[in-house]
Amino acid sequence: MISLAVLDMAGTTVADDGLVERAFTEAIGAVGVSERDDRFPDMLAHVRATMGQSKIVVFRALLAEDLAQQANSAFEQAYSRLVGQGLCEPVPGAEQAIRGLRARGVKVAFTTGFARPTQDAILDALGWRDLADLALTPGDAGRGRPYPDMVLTCLLRLGIEDVREVAVAGDTPSDVLSGRRAGASVVAGVLTGAGTAAELSGAGATHVLDSVADLPALLT
């Protein structure tokens, strides 16, 4: 029996529509790397390959520490501004799925690779502050994906007794790896974001779904 569903945000419950790449382009430009820079294509490729991971970790792989911190701050500001402009929509059926799970007694937690201010901006823009039982960022758990820390922190904070009672859903291989490493019995990859079916299956997804809207039926 599943007692907790841990759900990613951008690309899984929240439509991304290229916002991460737009914010990254602005952030990397703020530290001197324009789209015309020879380094830009490889940097963008790295961002795409590491979707779902903590953004400061992504920037640290590309830049020296001081520039990584500047770029991360610029990214959070850019993404929050785009969200504030109304460029943030839920994945169709996501809210209904979450409400349905909670009505059945399943606790729901949001996790993200964003920092707290950006996660809060998304929740406020969608009116989702009270939609889930818990919302965590990498900073709340110690490490972000693909480590299991956020999933396990959700389990501990919400009083779940067994990792086998946990289901995880996300749109990236990092989401899937995080769920598998945490010991969740259901680790579903969804096709509304960055990952392909082959990538999600290759990372170890127990199921690949068209959308998080299909999760309640799977858990039933």
UniProtKB/TrEMBL annotation:
One GO term (biological process): DNA repair
Annotated InterPro entries: HAD-like_hydrolase_sf, HAD-like_sf, HAD-SF_hydro_IA, HAD_sf, PhnX-like
GO MF entries: phosphoglycolate phosphatase activity
SUPFAM superfamilies for this protein: HAD-like
Pfam families registered for this protein in UniProt: Hydrolase
PANTHER family to which the protein is assigned, alphabetical: PHOSPHOGLYCOLATE PHOSPHATASE (PTHR43434), PHOSPHONOACETALDEHYDE HYDROLASE (PTHR43434:SF19)
NCBIfam families on file: HAD-SF-IA-v1 (TIGR01549), PhnX-like (TIGR03351)
Protein name: Phosphonatase-like hydrolase
